[in-house]
Structures are given as structure tokens and as C-alpha cells.
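Bug: C-alpha cell stream looks shifted between consecutive jobs. Job 1:
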Amino acid sequence: MRELRSRIRIVTFLLIMLLVIVFTYSIYSINVYGTRWFAYGRNTRVLSDKNVVVPGKIIDRNGVVLAYTDSDGNRKYQNDKLKRSAVVHLLGDSQNQVSNGVEKFQARYLYGFDTSLSERIEQFINGKQRYGDNIQLTVDSELNTYIVNKFNEDKDLRNKGAGIVVMNYKTGEIIALVSMPIFDPVNIPKSAFTDERRPFWNRVTQSTLPPGSTYKIITMASVLQFDTELANSEFNCDGAVVLDNHTIKDANGAVHGPISLKKAFEVSCNNTFAKIALSLGDEKLLETSKALGFNDNFLFRDIVVENSVYPSEGRNELEIA
């Protein structure tokens, strides 16, 4: 009998521990993945609440209303067609073609899911209309519109796909985010569904692209970490490095001549940094890249982005440079 009671206690203890683990993990998941869960297109709770909650406004950093709900319960976007088109990849659209826009990804706030339980009970008892919270973005919609206008003025760029982002490097705030081509979120043209440039795709957050000269920061960090002698050397920029029948040149055909690492970084000398990358080798560059977030999975609460990827093997000299 005592043995049976002892076993019952053990089983009870294990069940309690299991419940504690499940509860703790649930709290953790809501904090880390909660925004993604609310943004999930088939989330039945969000779908049902959309019928009874008036979602909040979406406002830019200067107080410009980008999205709101009218007295008939219809979701409305900016009256200015160009402006609402310029922020379409940030907000979303009337047919939910854009993934992870504010309308989807911030549903927990727009539909008032962060409202306390007591407030919701009070609203239910008193028969009050439920309202979601307003969201103010760090984005300047005027700057977004300006970027679109400048892009369209260039005949070589207007028909191409592109992603443009402006950030405050001190705070991490996104001041502007444009993915080209844009489209009208209210009246989506049929051509958008077959356009090879994929207008519903947010190129800023959903694409992985070669980093270009910004990668010089990592090459610089790597040479300072692994080869101080090389870092203190004087380099010679003759304007071109030829690798695998491909010529790496500097902007506007510049030839810097004898140049220090500091100066090469200042003028963004492609010639010098290609040579440094080859001297360091792929393994050291990979190690520094990993330390700075490449090949890692980042979870942000306010935005979904593709992970930065560093190819770990099989790179030739041209790719390394």
C-alpha cells in the first residue's frame, strides 16, 4: 500500500512538473512568437474578433493617418493614391496579398488583444463597442513617397524591382521602407498577380541579397581580429583586381595608389578590400560573419526579416573577394 502511495506521489509530482513546464513554455512562446501567432492568416481567434472589434488607426511618425476604419466598419487607406501605394508593403492591402504588413503582424494591438481581461469583461457586460489600439510607426510616409517619385523619375530604374530602407543607425528606427514595384492597396490591378517582378513581395524584408560595400565592415573587423600586421600595412590600389576573368574596379574607375586600411575603408576601396579578403581567407571571414549574426536566426517582435546567410563552403577567389 505504501509503495502504491509512493508511486502515486511520484506520478502526481511528474504531472505537476509537466504542467509547470507547459505553462512556462506557453508564456515564453506568447512573448517570443506571439506577434507571429496573431499574424497567422488562419488564426480563428483573430478572424472571429475582426467581426466585433473596430481596429485602430495606423499613423506615421508625423501623425499622418495611413489606415483607419470608417463609421460603416470598412477599412480605409490614405486618400492620396501615391502615398498609400508608397507604404503598401509596410501596411498591407485590402486583399491580404502582402505578408507581414502592419495590418497582419500587429493584429494583437490593432484589434485590442493587449487589453486587460477586466476591461474586456466590462465592455461585454455594458455592451460597449470594442476598439483596438492605434499604432504609430517610426516611418515618414512623405519620405516613402519622395523615394518612389525619385525612383520613377529614373527611366533605367522605374521598371525594375528594388528595395530601399532608411534607418536611424543610433536607434534602429526605420524611417522609410519601400519595395518596388508598388501597387494600389485599394484597387489592385490584375497585372500585379502575373507581374514577374513580384509586387506583393517585400524586397526589403523577404529577400536575401549580396550586401555590397556594407560587407567591408565585416572584412575590416576580421582583419583587425586576426591579422594586425596586415591591418597596419600599406596597400596599393592600382584600380583593378582581375580574378577568374572578372575585373573588380573602384567606383568611377578611381585609382588610389598607396593607401592605408583606414583610408581604404573611408573611400570604400574595392581593390584593397578584395586583396584583404583573399589574404584572410574564407574561414576567418566566416568566423567573423557568424560572430556578427550571419547564419543566425533573429526573432524581432515588430518585424519579420530573412536571415543573413554566409555560404560555408565551395567559394572561389572571386566570390571571397
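Job 2, same session, no restart:
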Amino acid sequence: MKRVRSRGDEACASPVKKRWNKTSVQKELTSGNMYFTKIEGLSHKFNNFAFSLREILDTITPTNSIHFNFMIDPHWLLSQYPEQCRDTPIMLVVGEKMGTDASTLTQLTKLPIPFGTHHTKLSIFECESKLHVLISTANLIEGDWDLKTQCIYYANGPINNEEVESSDFQKELMSYLEFYKNPELEYWIQRIQHACFSSIKDHIIYSVPGYHKDEKKDNLGLLALRKHLSQIRVSLDKLEGSHLFLAQCSSIGSLGPSFDAWTKPQLLKSMRGGIESEDSVAPKFFLIYPSVTDVRNSVEGYAAGGSLPYQRQTSEKQLWLKDYFCKWRSETNSRSRAMPHCKTYAELVNGEPRWLLVTSANLSKAAWGELQRGGVQMQIRSYEFGVLIADQDRIRLPYDYPIAKYSKTDEPWICNMNYTEKDSCGTDWIVS
């Protein structure tokens, strides 16, 4: 297996972290559950449903690994493995244009459309008896697993060399790997085929770059989310009360001149399972994204803003977003000062989450796709990967509810603007 090294992050680099009432007697990694990354210094209560990468790898003790990601520090990654596992095969997959290091090796994934990225954050591990799948929102670099709010979804399936019962989760995972058209991934496709994930009822939602048509487009990005949510829409619409649709992300792309350009007719329609919004009863939609004050007061101070690469030139073209912005608040999880790098999308009915998507996909057309030519074609620029959970008992929101709307004086964090007021670390943020 070949190792691939990549450096660099989203557009701005740093110049230098559910309401869940259930208690657990013992902290354990359970298949089909969502967790947070562990933040050192928090009490056990708030890290009870959190793991470090080292703890995960100690639990799995992999004999073979493959990591798909945007950023990978191979030296740090290897240091997280148990010592006895560091000589095992480890394959890394990153985007062809992400590396700025002269030592970048081969096995880079092609990005056929400009401004696309290989943004997926997926790891698959093999051990003697099981295949383990880790879907996360974190790059494989130390800073992403330290003081940020990140989400992790874990699943495993026993390996059987005989024929196993197929499942949607298994087929969706195989289908994603097949899109790479890389013979070096054939081994992993075969291992997935022989792993039994029949106990996993969650769905994988992924994006791959290209101009997609016909049935193929229905299984990707926006339309994949739309398809799966349409299957539970009937039961959701029977629930009386307030329906709230929430997007939460760490970066925002160019969304057009108004809410009606792309967000409402394409993203929100997909979050509603394909149902059109009537203007007279428009559903409530909000976007949770850190304000400048949130970043300034965070544990990392302005440095946390390096992982929140919303650009000034983009922001100035979509000032309408101000009406939808909500602050980052996570007191329930003791993570209000740990800036989010997670990306989640959810529907709440009377304050209760009914489904949650944990994904690498930020709020952008590049990540989710854009329907073109009257809906005949969908353009996607980036690789993205996430998991849709529709079981209320396993949903953990990374933020607080009720949500906190921006005040009149709040502004979204913009990474390429100057901020002279000192942050929690006593520094300012000067980019020009």
C-alpha cells in the first residue's frame, strides 16, 4: 500500500474545540453511534461520549487501514496508532491539488471540475474478525482532534468470507469507493462486500465530482438526501407543531443573491424530502455559524478562525444570510468555546430532533451539488461523505436548543478580515 502526504487546509490557514440525557455506566465504542472528539480538560461527564483518535485505534487495533481525507499529517496519524500496529499497511487518499509539500506522493484523487476538493473524512479499518468504519468531520491533523467540536460516527460489521446479508449501508459504502475507479481500492470493496452491516439502518450520503444525469444523480448529494428523507416524510408531516430546519457548518460557499436562488429550492427542498415550500407557510430555516465574538472568546481565540474559511468577497454578495444566522452555543456539551469544525443538518419538531446528517459537506453548491438544465443534470465539484441518522434515540445535536439568533451587532466570522480587539489569548488577527 502506498502512503500519500498532503498539507494545506481550507482557504485560510490558522497563523500558528445533544441535548443527551441518557447516562452510560461505561464508556465504550458502540456500532451505529455518534460521538464527539475528546477535548482534554473537560470533566468526564462531557467526554463520556467522546473519543480521541488514539483511543479509537487502541480499541480497534487495526491490521489494515485506509483513510480518505482532505488534510493528513502522516507522522501525527502514525503516532496515534498502537505501537504494535504501526507497521501494518496504511493507505491514504487525498485530492490531487491539496498538497503543497514537495514530498507529496502518488495515489492522488483527480478533481475534474475547478474549485473542487477531496473533502471526504472516512476511515476504514480491518482487524481479524471485523471491518470498522469511521465517518468524521475532522481532518487527520493534530489541531482538528484537539480543541474543536468535531463529530464521529462509528460502525462495525463482522467479516465472513462466505456470502453475507447485504444492507443499504454496505451497498452505499461500496458504491462510493467504486466511484474512484482506482484498482488499489478493489481490496477494500471486496472486504466491505464480505462484512455484515445488516444491523446498521443508517444511510450514507455522499458527493462525487462530475456532471451527473439520469438515475445516477438521484444517489448523490442533494438528491440522495432528498430520496432518503422522502421515505420518512409522511410520518414527519403527521407530527403537529413547529418544524425547524437547521444547517450548521464551518464554511459557506457562494449561494446566490437570495434565499430563493439555491438554498430554498434545492437544499431546503431536499431537507424536506422533496416537498416544495409554499410561500404562505414557509418552513423555518436557520444556519448555525460562529460569530466574530464566538471566535474571539473561544479557547483558541482568533486562531480557531483559520478553520472557518468564510471569505469576505463571498459574504458581501449574500448579505441576506444575516437573517438566518445563529450563534454557536453548546453549553449542554460544554463545547461553546470549542469552535465547530463539524457539519450537521437536522430537522426538529417541537424542539426534538427527528433526523440528523453528520457530514463533511459545508453549506455550498460545490459540496451538495447544483441542479442545472431544468433539473436534468446535477453538477458537483467535491468529494463529500456523511451519514444520515433517523433514529431519535441515537441523535446527539452538537449545539444547544433553543438556538441563539445573531443580534443586530453580531457579524459572521470572516477569515480574511482584520480583527484588532484582543482575543482570549491576548492576540489580534491581522491578515493585511
